[in-house]
């Protein structure tokens, strides 16, 4: 079997030749496509630093074999901002001091986007905390993260309403 | 990670033929398999990727009232199906209490059933482990074994099965459709996993190359929906495996339990259906005395396998808690922390 796969990454189709079936989506993004915004923390599915949206769903890219996802659509932290303008989740993370060292932040933000799109947490901080529990923050910025997710969610639903109107 | 050949079959028949070759392993999401391969715990020579076979991820509500669920469905998608969650709330609660949102989005139901133990000695290739390497011994016996089995263990292995999903599936009588070179057969979920005995490396009744196609729940399982809970004690609030967990379902008529379903998780190498406890509850009032007797019956044969005698009493208390919460009624909406034993009890008593 040819080890050539096609992925749509942040809206751009990319065909990639793989010389090794062991490459994960995380290593493909970081080591071969120079998309180093997605972070490698534990590399074992325990910390969430590598969270991306895969076909619209948040997953740990460290445990996903790239070959198995031929044809998939991928959104990484690099695809989130609108030009120079921060995405509402990025802006809310800044406004609420939702990080310190910043290493877990891309994963936190992609996970927050997944959570908001799943639409099951509502405005309940407890449900946001539970929904974000797959993302560890060793600086302990959890309080700011929860506030940022809640505010970003409000702003995104307000923006969506205004677009409809 | 070792190198491997990657095979992507388009049909179940092709997959089974490919997996018949020794050294093969099925790849579903890989959330457990890739982790184990990264640690060198498993070293399959061929991965048979079953993610591109169509039709294995459907939820079908059957005319007889049962439900058939494709084994490639993702954990999150079953929990999020409103009809399924309404009819089988304890199963949805168990799914949502497991792992993280990211893992639930990826992990399949079939993979959940066949996930490997989280015993640290199984994961550490420098340790002796009869389950990983038959005949090498069991370093867990004299090691860090606070979290190990209290039921059904043997001198060869004291590991537990970590699945949450399997616990209510065992309680509510799920069956599996399994396909192999000799055709299709059905196996009760309760019979899927083997107890370790002298051969802990034989973890399930699946023959090499057999594939779980679907799981089924009988119509009767939905009759417990008004009184069905899954309760799980973890060492942190979220995103952790069970120390002990319990699934409980009750049918109540005229202030009496007419039928009960009960299973424990985190206590054995398989989900542990507690049939003696179920019988003890039939005809009894749903009160603390009945639940206490049921918990005694469920743990009658338990014995510590190491520094874990506390788990026997803990399992009794989690069973009582699960029964108490089930009797109080399935909540309209799942709690913010699914399966948490720390939710307030009806009547405001902090401890049940």
Automatic annotation (TrEMBL), chain A:
Q: Can you tell me which residues the record assigns to a coiled coil?
A: none
Annotated signal sequence is: none
Q: Superkingdom of the source?
A: Bacteria
Entry's transmembrane regions? none
Alphabetical list of InterPro entries matching this protein: 2Fe-2S-bd, 2Fe-2S-bd_dom_sf, 2Fe-2S_ferredoxin-like_sf, 2Fe-2S_ferredoxin-type, 2Fe2S_fd_BS, Aldehyde_Oxdr_Iron-Sulfur, Beta-grasp_dom_sf
Every copy of the 2Fe-2S ferredoxin-type domain together lies at: 3-80
Keywords assigned by UniProt, alphabetized: 2Fe-2S, Iron, Iron-sulfur, Metal-binding, Oxidoreductase
Q: Which Gene3D superfamilies match?
A: 3.10.20.30, [2Fe-2S]-binding domain (1.10.150.120)
What molecular function does GO assign, one term? 2 iron, 2 sulfur cluster binding
DNA damage listed as a keyword: no
Is Glycosyltransferase one of the keywords UniProt gives this record?
no
UniProt-listed PANTHER family: OXIDOREDUCTASE WITH IRON-SULFUR SUBUNIT (PTHR45331:SF2), OXIDOREDUCTASE, IRON-SULPHUR BINDING SUBUNIT-RELATED-RELATED (PTHR45331)
Q: What is this protein called?
A: Xanthine dehydrogenase YagT iron-sulfur-binding subunit
What is the species listed in this Swiss-Prot or TrEMBL entry? Belnapia rosea
| Phylogenetic lineage | Bacteria, Pseudomonadati, Pseudomonadota, Alphaproteobacteria, Acetobacterales
Automatic annotation (TrEMBL), chain B:
Under the heading Gene3D superfamilies, the entry gives: 3.30.465.10, CO dehydrogenase flavoprotein, C-terminal domain (3.30.390.50), Uridine Diphospho-n-acetylenolpyruvylglucosamine Reductase, domain 2 (3.30.43.10)
Q: Where is the FAD-binding PCMH-type domain?
A: 1-222
SMART domains attached here? Answer: CO_deh_flav_C
Which keywords label this protein?
FAD, Flavoprotein
Asked whether the UniProt record includes Flavoprotein among its keywords, one would answer: yes
MF terms from GO for this chain are: FAD binding; oxidoreductase activity
The region annotated as signal peptide is none
- Name of the molecule in the record: Xanthine dehydrogenase YagS FAD-binding subunit
Organism, by scientific name, is Belnapia rosea
């Amino acid at each position: 079997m040819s080890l050539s796969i096609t992925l749509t990454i942040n809206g751009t189709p990319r065909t990639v030749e793989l010389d090794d079936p062991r490459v994960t989506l995380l290593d493909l993004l970081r080591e071969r496509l120079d998309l180093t915004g997605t972070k490698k923390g534990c590399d074992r599915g325990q910390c969430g630093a590598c969270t991306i949206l895969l076909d619209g769903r948040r997953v740990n890219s460290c445990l996903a074999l790239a070959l198995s996802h031929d044809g998939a659509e991928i959104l990484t932290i690099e695809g989130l901002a609108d030009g120079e303008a921060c995405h509402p989740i990025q802006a809310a993370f800044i406004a609420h001091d939702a990080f310190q060292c910043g290493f877990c932040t891309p994963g936190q933000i992609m996970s927050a986007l997944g959570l908001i799109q799943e639409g099951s947490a509502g405005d309940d901080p407890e449900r946001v905390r539970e929904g974000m529990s797959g993302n560890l923050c060793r600086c302990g910025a959890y309080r700011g993260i929860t506030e940022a997710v809640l505010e970003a969610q409000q702003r995104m639903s307000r923006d969506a309403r205004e677009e409809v109107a | 990670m070792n190198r491997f050949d990657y095979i992507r079959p388009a049909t179940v028949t092709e997959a089974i033929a490919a997996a018949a070759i020794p050294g093969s392993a099925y790849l579903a999401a890989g959330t457990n398999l890739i982790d184990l391969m990264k640690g060198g715990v498993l070293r399959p020579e061929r991965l048979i990727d079953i993610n591109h076979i169509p039709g294995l991820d459907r939820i079908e509500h059957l005319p007889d009232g049962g439900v058939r669920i494709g084994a490639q469905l993702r954990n999150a998608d079953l929990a999020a199906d409103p009809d399924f969650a309404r009819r089988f709330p304890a199963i949805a609660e168990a799914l949502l209490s497991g792992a993280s949102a990211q893992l639930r989005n990826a992990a399949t139901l079939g993979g959940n059933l066949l996930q490997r133990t989280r015993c640290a000695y199984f994961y550490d290739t420098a340790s002796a482990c009869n389950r990983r390497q038959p005949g090498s011994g069991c370093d867990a016996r004299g090691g860090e074994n606070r979290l190990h089995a209290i039921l059904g263990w043997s001198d060869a292995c004291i590991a537990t099965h970590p699945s949450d999903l399997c616990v209510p599936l065992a309680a509510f009588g799920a069956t599996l459709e399994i396909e192999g070179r000799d055709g299709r057969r059905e196996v009760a979920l309760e019979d899927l996993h083997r107890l370790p005995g002298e051969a802990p490396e034989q973890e399930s009744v699946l023959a090499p190359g057999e594939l779980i196609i679907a799981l089924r729940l009988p119509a009767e399982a939905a009759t417990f929906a008004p009184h069905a809970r899954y309760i799980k004690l973890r060492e942190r609030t979220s995103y952790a495996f069970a120390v002990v967990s319990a699934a409980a379902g009750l049918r109540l008529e005229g202030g009496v339990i007419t039928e009960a379903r009960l299973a424990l998780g985190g206590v054995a190498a398989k989900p542990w259906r507690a049939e003696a406890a179920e019988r003890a509850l039939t005809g009894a009032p749903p009160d603390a005395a009945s639940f206490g007797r049921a918990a005694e019956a469920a743990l009658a044969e338990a014995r510590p396998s190491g520094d874990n005698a506390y788990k026997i009493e803990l399992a009794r208390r989690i069973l009582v808690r699960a029964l108490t919460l089930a009797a109080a009624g399935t909540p309209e909406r799942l709690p913010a922390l699914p399966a948490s034993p720390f939710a307030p009890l009806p009547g405001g008593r902090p401890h049940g």
